[in-house]
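Thread: quick sanity check before group meeting

JM: Hey all, I'm pulling together slides for Thursday and realized we never actually wrote out the predicted structure for the chain we discussed last week. Dropping the sequence here so it's in one place. If anyone has concerns about the input, flag it before I start.
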Amino acid sequence: MRRFILCLLLGALALAGCAPALTDAPATPTSAPATTAAVPPPSATLPTAETSTPRRTPTEAPIIAALPTATLPPTPASAPGRYVDASQGVALRYPQEWTAQPGDDASTLTWVVAPDESVWGVLFSSPLPAAATLEQMAAQIRDDSARNLKDVTPLADRSVTLPGERPARHSEYRARDSEQEYHVVLTSAARGDRIFTLMFYGRPEAVALHRDAVDAISGALELSAPLRFGIPQDQALLWLGGESANPRAYDPATGGGNDLVFSGLVMFTPDLRVVSDLAASWDVSPDGTVYTFHLRPEARFHNGRPVTAQDVIYSWERAADPATESNEVLTYLGDIVGVRERHAGTSDRITGLAARDPHTLEVRIDAPKPYFVMKLTYATAAVVDEANVESGPEWYRTPNGTGPYRLIRWEPHRVQIYERNDGFYLAPPAVRYIIVQLVAEVGLRMYERGDIDITRVGSADVARLRDPGEPLHGELLEAVSMCTGYVVFDTTRPPFDDQKVRQAFALAVDRQQYVDLVADGLSLPARGLYPPALPGHDPALEGLAFDPALARTLLAESRYGGAEGLPTITFTTAGHGSDVSQDVAVLAAMWQEHLGVTIAIDNVEPDRWWDELHAGNHGQIFSQGWCADYPDPENFADALFHSQAQQNLGRYTSPKVDALLERARVERDPDARIRMYQEAERQIVHDAPAVFLSHALHFLLVKPRVKGYVLTPVHVPLARYLRLEPEQP
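JM (edit): ok, ran it. Output follows.
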């Protein structure tokens, strides 16, 4: 009989794989009284959503620092006679002599069973599409529940009111399977994007016997704002996050940080304008080399201390300190006079920084560069509190930032909770809390259950979500990113110190086949470095197109004389153990097929990946990808392939490319700059220091209750712009 009701639910939830409704139910015990024949108890359980237990990596140190542990409101719990699921915002009362049993999965919340087990009730939830009404969905659930029955006789269908003046739909029908007749009673109510249904079923005489209890339980169904960790969900934005065993992932100076907690002098708006943040305004000297930033006098750290120009100087000098070992500081702050000397250890200060007064900061750069202020939107330029940073090695667990949110609770491997900074120097954000769940689970499944509000969508799920008949279709956002995926050759190590070998490897890759296999065709094959949305993208660039015959010819013409003369080649990528990711496997197979080359795979723990690359601990080939931090081709060509660039991890050198990039840095004519960057791109592609593979497309699901979300091609601190739509009753 449990199988019957589960099949009904599966039909209502539009899932597959269920046998006919009642034909596989166990036989009713013959000893049951005729007037209250027992409905067989639950005997089958469906698999629950796949989950995995968070695990510590071997390098993860024990947590020894104090963590934010704000006391949160208590969460109501179930007790005899009352079922409560605070996370779903649903409760019901039932007679003490009835019993409650746990649901089978995230959608089947609970069972309530009559004392003689002749009547069973089940409370379950389903998505409520944005365009659907309560009446429409309640009717669909009712019809789905009867789909595999016959002789269906409607008994009731009307509007009712539940506690809290909550509108609901009540319906009843009788129907038969091949053996017996059933009476089914359904009550459905909606809240937000979910519909909750309480369904009772049993033989007609049993339902009649327990009618008062059935009506009382149905009428006591309560819906309220769900609680997440004691916080009303209508006050919280729900995210899925993760934890790193590497402290550098949390430090703005080393490319981590958190734009909920930290902020900088300037920021991007959702339409990619650079606007003031900690700095109320700034001036630029006529020659374009001196920037004077005027800090907001009302800006405060979370502990109330005013932010000063000296705090900015401390933050940037700390980022440039060689002891910090920042892999990003030269990329984003290296234009400032003295940063390179500070990073090299030949100076104990950044000479291009000066505090003219507590709220005025002067910044001198080495040449007039039109993109300079955009670089200051990156995390490396964020401001930190010296006393906080110097408090100990795990200072980042209790950060004293300047951003729109304060971290108030951190339970490792469970949750981080951020509360709105009501003293924020700009308008405080509309959303009071942000709850980041630190669990190892599939984002799409959590989104479908209502556990998170925003999730990225993998390519395997895009086709379903693009279907107009899919309930989540209207919540799908799509955009072209400013990202390029590629693999890098170490041009200083054999065999990739030979340009013809590099070109041969590039020509042996069928990029269309690559994106079809790796991304289900939902990426764009890359012909060059610049993604299509980036200024400077050249649609006429042909690149090193797939040509296996030419690839073999070039390999034979190289100083290695063909595949047999090559040394062992190691491909380093982020991964665990001996696992080989699909993208690496596809490339290795192409090189094996078209060049006769065998590749050894070396995995590096993801937490250590970026640091290991910068330390030079990699094979002759390694995976990389780059997404624009600001919409300018300098962020790609110069940041990645200038011979002195901090991110030039393949150690590629080209005097011609260097000269083009150095001229483009200071060119005031936008069109002339773009032409220089395009010429530099053509030379880089020809020299083949990397194989440019694909440009990603972004797919995201966003709950209708989240307003103001924009899928931007570069990272923008969006939380301060978001609001939550009040729930409609």
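AS: nice. Confidence is low (pLDDT under 50) at residues 1-65. The two ends are 34 Å apart (CA to CA).
JM: adding both to the slides.
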